[in-house]
Amino acid sequence: MLYTQELDSKIREYIDANRDEALAFWKDLVNHEGQHGEKEYLLQTAGFLKTKFEELGLKVDVLDAGENNAPVVTALLNPDAPGRPVVFSGHYDTVFAALSRGKDPFRVEDGIVYGPGCCDMKGGIAIAYNVVKTLIHLGFRECPVRLFFVGDEEVNHIGGTAISLIKEYTTDILVAFNMENRYESGEVCVGRKGDYEYKVVTRGVGSHPGHAFDAGRNAIEEMAYKIIGLQQCTPKEKDRDFSVSVDVIRGGTVTNVIPDYCEVMVDVRIRSLDALAEAERRMNEVIAQQHVPDTTTELILCDAMPPFENTPQVNEAYATLKAISDTIGSNITGPIQVGGASDSAHMPAGTKIVCQCGVMGGLTHNIGEYARLDSLYEGIRLFTFAVLNHQLFE
Predict the structure, then answer these.
(1) Is the separation of the CB atoms in 251 and 262 below 8 Å?
(2) How many independent structural domains does the chain possess?
(3) What is the pLDDT of residues 143-186, one digit of tens each?
(4) Which pTM value belongs to this model?
(5) Whether residues 274 and 142 fall in one domain
(6) Backbone angles phi, psi at 282, to 5 degrees
(7) DSSP-derived secondary structure letter, 87
(8) Where are the beta strands (DSSP E) in the chain?
């Protein structure tokens, strides 16, 4: 492994000398706000990233991802270097509407960073950007390094083409570090549940509840049975391979009409595609059971985020990164598998990936979202060493 006290001192000195610049990049990125649907704002963020990457002398491309979707911004260090690229991936959109927390919401208090998306996951982009800056300072030219950031991850790229671009740009790579945020406990992610969204629609017969009650076929009544059955699809054990949760219900119009329509939205989380098959089998059994005569019910898949499966290749990449962390005295504490989905799932099967490589923090998707400032600087150091030791990921 490439590690000496002299090299470590050189990296630390560069990071320390550029702390204010690294923090300024993070601040500017958080203050460039935008959620899906706010393409005007997200285009400004994409332009900011493009400018910053070009200032480093990188080869930059802004890739169209659909009429209503923000583009992919990708940049390449050492395009003519031999070997397969190391990829830093992530997203620059957030779940928060622009200006929902006032203008320029980024702030730092007692070593804690606040602001929409500061943790999920603009801090991770800040790490990756500053890793490339550090590598340039060190004169690193041994392999290509790609930055790849999408603008519509929080809605799983609905209506856009980013998923196909992810697959294209992560085919035949050396390793990918997806820069979603880490927990403060220090683990990095080696597996994520898939997230599948279904609509269940029940149709009945509408009628007047006073003088034609018996002619009606109440769609809400039928759906009530379906909701109970769907909830019971989830295995009882806590270490389950999948879960089924009915989270939204819509039905009826006014109180004096027996409803002829009812729909619910169902969230299904899975650890594997085999688990998905079992979840769908159980749901379809529920859908097939009719309780109110002359009603019909159908199960419709609306959105699919496949699982980021814990493969041998993922575990190899984790073991290598953990060994690097241990050697340099960094702060990876172990592997973790989590319930939330990420774009790691869209990379080709067999790819070496480690997820949740970004800044440490918490309360993501919450107004109190925060990140630890010190984790920015230690993340830059850790992943600089990871790239310098790229050959260990072969």
Answers:
(1) yes
(2) 2
(3) 999 999 999 999 999 999 999 999 999 999 999 999 999 999 99
(4) 0.89
(5) no
(6) -65, -40
(7) E
(8) 59-63, 72-77, 86-91, 107-109, 112-114, 145-150, 175-178, 188-192, 194-203, 242-251, 261-270, 296-305, 335-338, 353-354, 361-362, 370-372
